[in-house]
Design brief:
Elements: E1 10-15, H1 17-20, H2 35-46, E2 53-56, H3 64-74, E3 82-86, H4 89-97, H5 104-122, E4 125-129, H6 144-160, E5 164-166, H7 168-178, H8 181-184, H9 193-206
Parallel strand pairs: 1-2, 1-3, 3-4, 4-5
Helix pairs in contact: 2-9, 3-5, 5-6
Amino acid sequence: MEPIIERNALVLFQGDSITDAGRERLTPESLGCGYAMMAAGWFGSLYPELNVTFLNRGIGGNRAADLEQRWESDCIALEPAWVSIMIGINDTWRAFDSNDPTSTEAYEASCRNILTAVRDRLSARLILMEPFVLPFPEDRLAWREELDARIEVVRALAAEFDAVLVPLDGIFAAAAERREPAFWAPDGVHPTPAGHALIAQSWLRAVKAIC
């Protein structure tokens, strides 16, 4: 099996706290301690000869509009060959904990703007990761309708921009049939080490790095 990421490529991970995962902001090469680090580590160990470089610019609390505002410095200027994005859970969450909703239309517009910039200004390939939520605590069930609309946006944009899609919402739902939701994400959103590993495995499968 050969991964679809080419030799000497620069891969950029972008998103919110799930991607951020405690990375050291003053160390540009820091990948944090979550799925980005795990995916990069496994890719490098499996394909050292490809000399692929990974960067993480996820920032906790970000919504799609926040990515759009910092896209010039935190994506375009880095000139990646691949851009992997997971964003959307905070666009949903803030409607419930802060009465500060983001409409699906606004979310889609921000996502479209950043994807268009990647395509037109970098000619880079895209990897889109679905936002997800698990039904624990129980109040997370109320988020479902809002989040489902954003997941549909991600799926449609992945098709439109010829992006690799990582269907995390369904992957986590299936995982929650094997072990209780809190095993994967104790607040329904932020993964445990096992949850981060599940994301990393799913990402690696999507780019054909593992079976």
